[in-house]
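Q: Structure tokens for this one, please.
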Amino acid sequence: MKKFNILRVISLVALVALSTSVALYGGSITPESVIHVVTIKWADDASEEKIAAALKGVETLAEKYEGITRVWTRSIKAQGRESGVTAAFVMEFKNEKALKDYAGSDAQKEWYETYIPVRDRSRTFDITN
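A: Here is the predicted structure, written as tokens:
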């Protein structure tokens, strides 16, 4: 049941991303971009301020890493709360190369200084056509 709920969240995010892509790319439903979906269980001792700072860091990544085109950080609904998953964020990368190059980049390392201490665990899904 928990896996089903998480998959429902991922499906919803993918639908939103697809709708956005169709609107922005003139009806094309096969963009090159990669949607990077992350579901999160925050650490038990993570304060609201530190969580907010970690999410704010996601929002600024697009300014620091040119391969990221859009980010979403406001979780409206989170299924899987019984497993501790209470949030998700999404980053859209220009293409698969931009996603690969992001791993280990200075932008990621800087953001991880804020994010890793408040994250208990996360699950990541990278989706493209």
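A few notes: The chain has a mean pLDDT of 87. The first helix runs from residue 2 to 24.
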